[in-house]
Amino acid sequence: MKSNSFGKRLTEVRKDKKMSQDEVGKLVGVHGAVIGRYEREEVKPSIEMATQLAKALEVSLDYLVGSTDVLLEKSIVSRVLDIQKLKEDEKQHVFALLDAFLKQTKLQGIM
Question: What is the pTM for the complete model shown?
């Protein structure tokens, strides 16, 4: 199970992306040592800094702060947002196709 603290999640995501503290710091305009302090939970970032970190690491702020364990890929979120912009009947078509595909995939997994 993933940890729930901001610092530990920040560390996990940074390491998963194979980035150094300095690299993350440059993306958000702070020194890498500051990122280290966040990761060790010596200080808490402001909401603005936490938001910048989430954007830089391409994860949701909810994930970083431990509100969810779902780490959504940026491409999936982008598609969901595109679907949300469709007309209602178009959304229903997309959902029907998606539901049929997921059902078929689950059935194949059982067999």
Answer: 0.73
